[in-house]
Amino acid sequence: MPAIDDGPLDEIDLKILSELQKDGRIRNNELAERVGISPPPCLRRMKSLRRRGFIRAVRATLDERLLGYEVTSFVLIQLQSQTRTAVQAFEAAIAALPHVQQCSQISGDADFMLKCLASNVEAMHRQLLQFAAMPEVRTIRTYPVLGLSKDAPLPLPEAPHPRPDD
User: How large is the greatest C-alpha to C-alpha distance in the chain, in angstroms?
Assistant: First the structure.
């Protein structure tokens, strides 16, 4: 039997990943049944997928509004300079801000796109003033979210070929 860590993802691996995106708390027995294999190889495959980095984390998706975050906004930041020092200083400052949910370095007119949460418009304004006070920041553009139209799981690739080990 080939090692689970050998080769590309197969159809069963992709089914496991798909099911885990739907319900990260699914029990191994139910997961095995859904993907069409017995529980022991299903558990081995899950451990392999974690070890190989395909599964980075399993966590709950919380409702921002129920937790008091009424405003979600995307903030585009352009830095004064794109030197490694400036980028690292900005990233370190952003890492310390709990209201910044995501920070992505991008190309184009801006250098970073942030996803921020705030309890209200006044709190969002205070956040923007924090960004403006950072010496690395040149411009800030804010786009408050009016509604969420889609929140989908990650699309998975097609399996190259089935593996005969299960």
Answer: 61
CB 32 within 8 A of CB 42: yes
Q: What is the rounded CA–CA span in Å between residue 65 and residue 70?
A: 5
CATH number, domain with residue 23: 1.10.10.10
In CATH, what number is assigned to the domain containing residue 92?
3.30.70.920
Helical pair 11-22 and 28-35, crossing angle rounded to 10 deg:
130
- pLDDT tens digit sequence for 107-126: 999 999 999 999 999 999 99
The CA distance from 131 to 11, in Å, is: 45
Q: Which domain holds residue 129?
A: 71-144
Q: Give how far Cα 125 sits from Cα of 3, 98, 122, 156, Å.
A: 54, 15, 5, 38
What confidence tens digit (pLDDT) does each residue in 38-94 have?
Answer: 999 999 999 999 999 999 998 888 999 999 999 999 999 999 999 999 999 999 999
Q: Do 10 and 163 form a contact (C-beta atoms < 8 A)?
A: yes
Give which of 129, 125, 116, 118 is closest to 76, Cα–Cα: 116
